[in-house]
Amino acid sequence: METKIFQIEELDDAAELLKRGELVAFPTETVYGLGADALLPESVKQVFQVKGRPSDNPLIVHVADFKMTEHFVDKYHPLTEKIVQHFWPGPLTLIFPIKKNSLSPVVTGGLSTAAFRMPDNKKTLELIKKTGAPLVGPSANTSGKPSPTTAEHVYHDLKGKIAGILDDGATQIGVESTVLDLSGSIPIILRPGAVTKKQLEEVLQTEVLLDKHLVKESETPKSPGMKYKHYSPDTPVVMVRDNDWESAIQWAEQNQKAVGLLVGPMIGNKFQSADRYIFQDDTVEAATRGLYSGLRALDEADHSDVILTQIFEENELGAAYMNRLKKAAGQKYFEKNS
Ligand code: TXA
Ligand code: MG
After folding, report:
1. When you count CB atoms within 10 A of the terminal residue's CB, does the N or C end of the chain come out lower?
2. What would the pLDDT profile of 316-327 be if each residue is shown by its tens digit?
3. Which pTM was predicted?
4. Using an 8 Å Cβ cutoff, are 32 and 171 in contact?
């Protein structure tokens, strides 16, 4: 199948394909999603096949406005209005209990809850409206690869397997949305993202819990996506603490390791290496925006024996950055004397 790249003037053609049950990837402010009409179970099944994604990992239902969720949601949390007014459209996915049979178990993984999100991308909101149905949208990568932050990344992974990609350049945020469980009495963050615990607590004036616990294979996961190994490039990734860069580079030289660097300009300007991916600036925002793109670039360049990456404090956006980076690094830090 030919994978067509749609420019913004071609929204109608993209919507037409979705209505016909084809898959079209779409841009959001976080990462690109792999879109299918959420009301067509056969199309949703194809999403899992194309990605190579385990079928018990439920999908996010992307809506064009809050009203679109009403058809599905059984009961809203009392804080819903406040949350939606403040954070939608935006990088915040909300979990609600749903009406029986309102969504196919292919979408929900058979759970009695479902995930909803209104992405902050005008073209995609328009695409959903034109399709006339919500779109499921896992990240539009092959399972196990970093999520795509450009249409080119999507094309690289899925060309020939999907009907189209709506191109809107590079995404702003760079990692997936915050997932907030609103199906119980206390809001719980199941996946950290650009909407932070602190922001939520400030707006809601109530405690928000953070489910840090990584789910073991045998347990029923709260956010099923958490049990799978994610975002892991083939080249080993090692995290380096700010004071350990000299030792890490020395270690690499002594052991004749070709190093790939994934760092901000401050560290990048101090050390040279064949493969380098330098973030736009030294902020955690720039690092988060460049993380997946950098991992892909360094991994595919294939010259490096090891990718050394910069870390950030694990609060606010740093919590999201470190959550994804730790998965890519299999929790491995560079340790002096080891
Ligand atoms: O930013 C994003 O969220 C991107 C863009 C494309 O919107 N999408 C994305 O989708 O990251 P995906 O499928 O890669 O992640 C969805 C996450 C998974 O961790 C999944 O387990 C969780 O949401 N999830 C979905 N339905 C759930 C439910 N009913 N209860 C708990 N977790 C759920
Ligand atoms: Mg994903």
Report:
1. C
2. 999 999 999 999
3. 0.94
4. yes
The mean pLDDT value for 265-293 works out to: 95
With a Cβ cut-off of 6 Å, ligand 1 is lined by 28, 30-31, 33, 57-60, 93, 95, 108, 111, 113-115, 117, 119, 137-139, 176-177, 179, 190-191, 222-225
Return the percentage of the chain with pLDDT > 70, whole number: 93
Give the Cβ contact number of residue 86 at 10 Å: 15
Quick one: fold of 4-210? Answer: DHBP synthase (3.90.870)
Tokens 């064009």 belong to which residue? Answer: 64
N-term to C-term CA, the chain? 50
Residue nearest to atom 15 of ligand 1 (CA): 138
- 237-328: CATH topology: Rossmann fold (3.40.50)
How far is Cα 191 from Cα 153, in angstroms, rounded to an integer? Answer: 23
Contact 290, 246 (CB under 8 A): no
- Measured CA to CA in angstroms, residue 81 lies from 85, 192, 204, 234, 294 at distances of 6, 21, 10, 43, 37
Angstrom distance (rounded) from CA 262 to CA 36 = 34
CATH 3.40.50.11030 boundaries in the chain: 237-328
Residues of the chain with CATH 3.90.870.10: 4-210
Find out whether 111 and 50 touch, Cβ atoms under 8 Å.
no
